[in-house]
Structure to design on (308 residues):
């Protein structure tokens, strides 16, 4: 028995197929979840993939946050269901307030598409256990609304509790406060980040690195170990 | 028909690069004397019924939970006759 990992598709989601593939490459079973279906089909974890759900209308993630599937995911996350939000998925997670802060337009106003170096600052979450603490990884970054903001009190709290999971290394690509690329909730089951691990799981494509695969092997090991 | 306008603005402490880009373009276009520009969103809501306290309370709730993200934005609700 392997783990079943749900991958949500909203209207405007782009990276659901790559995410399903990444789940499969890691050895787990991807389960497509549809935004209008409240049923999570007994999945063991959920990934909210990247894209432009609902055209980013109003604010990125603001409309998806109220979709039927999110009701179940929000309730599940509060009960410990592991949830990973990538890019637009991270934006959805901040809009639901499962993760603190918000995402705004990049400070230089340009869409960015590049390989980005990150430092893993917390390898004790459900999604990062296969990385070394302080390990540097390089995975694609592609967005225009990637500037992470939160007030000073929240930022200090995140730092004090070790909830900054990823920081941009060498270069801050969008003006994110304190170089934050990804964070987790207090329990460590919900993680969001802007860069795209699902695009870096096979040596054949991209940079030839598989630095993103660890997200998916981490959660698989955790779920299989737990069952 | 009654109209209620909700204006949503980024909080003052939040950097607004779009507003800055507009402001920087102004002198080039011959518009002088503008010290700062902040860009926001305006929602015009046409009500089916009267604008009473109950309707305004629901609109404030709508603005708080949906139209604005109060982590980064402030909003105002105004009734237009």
């Amino acid at each position: 028995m392997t783990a079943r990992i749900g991958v949500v598709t909203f209207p405007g989601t782009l990276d659901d197929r790559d995410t399903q593939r990444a789940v499969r490459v890691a050895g787990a079973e991807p389960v497509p979840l549809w935004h209008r279906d409240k049923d999570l089909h007994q999945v063991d974890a959920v990934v909210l993939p990247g894209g432009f759900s609902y055209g980013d209308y109003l604010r990125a993630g603001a409309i998806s946050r109220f979709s039927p599937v999110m009701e179940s995911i929000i309730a599940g996350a509060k009960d410990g269901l592991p949830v990973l939000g990538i890019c637009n998925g991270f934006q959805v997670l901040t809009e639901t307030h499962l993760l603190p802060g918000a995402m705004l337009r990049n400070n230089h106003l340009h869409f960015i598409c590049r390989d980005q170096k990150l430092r893993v600052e917390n390898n004790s979450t459900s999604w990062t256990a296969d990385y070394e603490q302080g390990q540097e990884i390089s995975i694609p970054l592609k967005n225009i609304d990637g500037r992470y903001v939160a007030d000073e009190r929240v930022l200090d709290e995140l730092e004090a509790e070790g909830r900054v999971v990823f920081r941009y290394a060498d270069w801050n690509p969008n003006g994110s406060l304190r170089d934050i690329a990804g964070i987790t909730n207090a329990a460590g089951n919900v993680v969001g980040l802007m860069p795209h691990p699902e695009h870096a799981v096979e040596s054949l494509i991209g940079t030839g690195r598989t630095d993103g695969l660890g997200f998916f092997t981490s959660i698989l090991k955790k779920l299989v170990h737990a069952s | 028909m009654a109209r209620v306008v909700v204006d949503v603005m980024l909080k003052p402490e939040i950097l607004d690069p779009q507003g800055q880009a507009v402001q920087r373009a102004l002198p080039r276009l011959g518009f002088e004397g503008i010290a700062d520009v902040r860009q926001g969103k305006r929602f015009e809501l046409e009500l089916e019924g009267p604008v009473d306290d109950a309707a305004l309370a629901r609109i404030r709730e709508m603005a708080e939970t949906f139209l604005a993200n109060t982590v980064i934005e402030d909003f105002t609700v105004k009734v237009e006759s």
